[in-house]
Design goal:
Structural class: alpha+beta
Largest sheet: 5 strands, antiparallel
Distance between the termini: 22 Å
Radius of gyration: 18 Å
Number of helices: 3
Number of strands: 7
């Protein structure tokens, strides 16, 4: 296979939504920091939604991004918590894989802390092929062609071969 057609992990994003409760947000920050050793970034609201009591600038969650080797190591731990099994609905048509983990203590290496309790998180994996830099470069930015984009089947195949993931509802 052409090496320019080999998908790879660009980044792994971990996200915890806490709502407007600051105590829950502090616990979520502590969970992500204990799992990765990196300080997460707080996400803030952009819109005012009076019915939910939200106003612009209010922190409602936290997230962090891992790249390269640290992303693959963390992804192995996350997939182990899911028993290396994903659904076809976890894959989209643009090379993204998303899944949730309901209890962070299922992740290998996570310790239960009675002050924090049990918190779930969402993981989003962005896959890309070599050459995707043309989307982000500063000079002569261009779009990625249709034939070079990652399809849902390519993403499933990559996850099967690279991490041994089983996709539910698909014949082996």
């Amino acid at each position: 296979m052409n090496p320019m057609q080999q998908p790879r992990i660009e980044k792994l994003t971990l996200n915890i939504g806490a709502g407007k409760e600051q105590t829950k947000l502090d616990k979520a920050v502590a969970v992500l920091k204990s799992l990765t050793g990196i300080e997460p970034v707080k996400t803030v609201t952009q819109k005012r939604i009076a019915a939910w009591g939200l106003r612009p600038g209010l922190p409602i969650g936290c997230m962090l991004t891992l790249r390269k080797a640290s992303a693959s190591q963390m992804l192995k731990r996350l997939l182990k918590a899911k028993d290396f099994q994903l659904k076809p609905s976890n894959f989209d048509d643009n090379g993204m894989v998303s899944f949730g983990i309901t209890e962070h203590i299922d992740i290998e290496g996570a310790q239960y802390d009675p002050k924090i309790g049990v918190i779930g998180l969402q993981a989003c994996i962005t896959l890309e092929k070599p050459g995707y830099r043309i989307k982000r470069r500063s000079l002569h930015r261009a779009r990625v062609g249709k034939r070079h984009r990652i399809t849902k089947n390519e993403a499933m195949t990559f996850m099967k071969h690279a991490f041994g993931v089983r996709v539910e509802g698909e014949s082996a």
